[in-house]
Every structure is written in C-alpha cells, then in structure tokens.
Amino acid sequence: MSETSPKLRAELDGIPTYKPGRPAAADGPVAYKLSSNENPYPPLPGVLESAVAAAHNFNRYPDMACTELMSELADRYGVPLSHLATGTGSVGVAQQLLQATSGPGDEVIYAWRSFEAYPIITRVSGATPVQVPLTAGDVHDLDAMADAVTDRTRLIFVCNPNNPTGTVVRRAELERFLDRVPSDVLVVLDEAYREFIRDPAVPDGVEIYRDRPNVAVLRTFSKAYGLAGLRVGFAIAHEPVAAALRKTAVPFGVTQLAQDAAVASLRAEDELLGRVGMLVCERARVHEDLVGQGWTVPETQANFVWLRLGERTAEFAAVCEQEGVVVRPFPGEGARITIGEPEANDLFLRVARDFHKKLL
Ligand SMILES: Cc1ncc(COP(=O)(O)O)c(C=O)c1O
Hints:
Its cofactor is pyridoxal 5'-phosphate. Keywords: Aminotransferase, Pyridoxal phosphate, Transferase. It catalyses: an aromatic L-alpha-amino acid + 2-oxoglutarate = an aromatic oxo-acid + L-glutamate. GO terms for molecular function: aromatic-amino-acid transaminase activity; histidinol-phosphate transaminase activity; pyridoxal phosphate binding. There is one protein chain. This protein has two domains: 14-43 and 269-359, Aspartate Aminotransferase, domain 1 (Alpha-Beta Complex); 45-267, 3-Layer(aba) Sandwich (Aspartate Aminotransferase, domain 2). The protein has twelve helices and twelve strands. The chain starts with 31 loop residues before the first strand and ends with a helix. Helix 4 (117-125) links the parallel strand 3 (107-112) and strand 4. The protein is α/β, with parallel strands linked by helices. It has helices at 45-55, 67-77, 89-101, 117-125, 142-147, 171-180, 205-209, 239-248, 256-267, 269-293, 313-323, 342-359, and strands at residues 32-33, 84-87, 107-112, 128-133, 153-159, 186-190, 215-220, 233-237, 304-307, 325-326, 328-330, 334-338. Helix content is 39%, strand content 15%. Residues 37, 89-91, 115, 159, 163, 190, 192, 220, 222, 228, 233 line the site of pyridoxal-5'-phosphate (PLP).
C-alpha cells in the first residue's frame, strides 16, 4: 500500500478552520451564551408549527427552487425573482459569491477586523485576501479600501454593521466609495444585522443595489429572525450575479424545514421585530452602562458590543466564563459580547464593572 496521502490544494495549507463562539457550559450554575450573536428568544409558535409540519416530509428532498420563500422575499423587497438567490446561511451565499468571482491570482478586499469567515472563504477559493485595517475608531476605512483596488480585485466585502465592532458606514461615504470602485468589481454589502440598525443615515443595501449592477446584498434569517440553527440566507443581486449564485449552490442545500420556517418568520414579522426592538433597547442600556463604568465602547448598530481589551482579552473572557457568561474573545484585540436577555446582560454588566475597577 502506498504511503502518500491524497493531493490536496496547496491553498488550504495554513487556513484555520472556522472558530464558532463557545457554547455555554451545561453544568455551571447559570450559563449565558453571548458568544455567537444569536437571538436569545426561541422561535415563535407559528414558526415552530411550520417546522414541525415540514418534519413529516423528511423522506423527501426540499423544493430546490425555494419557490415559496423566493416569492415571499420578492414581494417583500420589491425585487424580481431573478434577482434573488438563497443559500445555507449568508455565509454559504458568500462562499458561492467567491466561487462565482474569484480564484487563484485574484484579490478580495475586506476590512479587518471583520467577519472571521471572510479570510477563510477567500483563501479556500484560492484568491488572495487584501485586508484593510479599520480606522482608529473601528470603522471601515473606505478610502483606503478603494485605494487598495487593483486590476486583480474581483470582490469587496463591506460588512455593515461590522462584526465584531458593531460600527456602520453611512450613506454618503458608501455612495462615494461605490462611485470609485470599477464596475467590474463585485461589492458585497453584508447586512447580516440589518434589522438592528436604528441610525437613519445607514443606507438599506436593497436601495443601493437597485441602480448599481455590481452591488450584491447579503441577508440572513440567523440573527433578527432567530433561525441560526436552520441555515438559510439569501442574496439580492442583479441577474448575472444571481444566476451565478444558482449555479454555485449546493443542490438542495436549503432544507424544507428552513424554507418553511423562514416563510413563517416573515409572516410573523411584527412579533419578531418586536423582539428585535427589545434587544435594541437592551443594547442602548448595555452601551450606556458600560460607558458609565468607564469603558470605551464604539457606537454599535448590531446585536453586540465590542470591548477593545488588547492583552487583557483572554483574561476578561475567562473571568466572564467563570461568572456564567460566555463571550467571544479575539485574543490580543478585544471581546465581542452579544446582547442577550436582560438577566444575561445584567450579569455581564456586573462582571464588566468588577473587571474595569481592577484595571484602574
Ligand atoms: C457579518 C456576518 N455575515 C454573515 C454571517 C453568517 O450568518 P449565517 O451564515 O448564519 O447567515 C455572520 C454570522 O455571524 C456575520 O456576522
């Protein structure tokens, strides 16, 4: 028997596997998971019932065209069906966008730090990541990102609001940036946290995309709609891009359970968005309390806050965990803390207060 292992693509060498937020310990006294930007509320009754009904047909493949979901989305956003494509979470759709645009020799630009999947999916595609540091205020440096465009650039991610900082880019600066980007470079507006935005100066990507054929918008049911476990997201993009997404999709990737639950969520939108409203109130409370405690916290429009803790990050995360709150550390940089239910936020604020006192 030969000793050599199968030949794998060299691009995979050194690519880290995606690191999910740690789950809460099952055996501690209290354990709140504030590490994955999930919605703390369980699915609404109508959503649950639709999922249970779909479970009766597990022996069948799902509707590959996601017909009902697509038509619901087309009506809701006022876009043609041909401009829509679904996938296994918006990260699945992002990977399809890379497959459709980028390969060895090409460049993909994104801010850094931003969503940790970008470097992974870029390198898996074989393209070269071009990371443009956030400004000192933890905001996308769109001028520097436009300056980084070369003949090789194929795709640019703009994460709005940015994960993990929660910061946003506003309409005028985004328009100015898009005017500078060549029309053959795809700009992906990743709006995973769109429903949490309350700043009216932050543009809705769906309005921006309409007269810009090189803009694609990514949305997800994982965050505000609370369906992270079902893996369904979608893109709104002009036809050549949306058509390419249908070609690069894993056949039958979006389960019937996910499709039906997504449709039911859209129909239960008032209640769902009421819950989002509560989280937005909690976000304001958490932000204000942290600032009152003496922390510097960037203004956030997402369902999380960012504490730039530098070398103290790992220690902070460990203390939080001991006290029953799991946060998301980025060692050496900072910690991202999801806004959860009020009791979880109270506990986190108490731990943050005690930790900050020790810093002084
Ligand atoms: C900015 C951003 N985009 C996309 C995603 C992916 O979400 P999903 O694949 O669950 O739709 C996330 C999840 O954390 C995110 O933070």
